[in-house]
Specification:
- The protein is mainly α.
- It has one domain.
- Helix 1 runs parallel beside helix 5.
- The N and C termini lie far apart (about 45 Å).
Length: about 130
Amino acid sequence: MAKIIKDEVRSKWQSLNLALECDEFNQIFKQLDNIAEPLKFDTTDEQWESWQNLIKQINNDIDNMNCHSKVRQRIFEEFQLIVTLIEEDQEPPSQAQLAKYLKIPKNTLNQDMKRLRKLLLQRPNTREI
């Protein structure tokens, strides 16, 4: 009986943990995708420049993060991947798939997404829509 309860608790914890991990990445992707949505159809030079400006600003924010340079580089690469997925109008992978693709632990990716989301929330044009 104890084994059954233990397995059930572990199963529920893992599903809860996975849901929490996916939330940050999906929120970031949705926020940026909503901003970039007009670019996927008929875009003006001004809209494209605005998008590129936003990307440049976020890259600068990443460069100025108060953390180790390896962490900043990893977050920069993760952000570039998100931008590429959006610009190519691709569906986002799950956070677990993304971690596997990037060859980093899911927990590390989750922490990176929290840091990136914090940066985005500091920009008025990237706050939740």
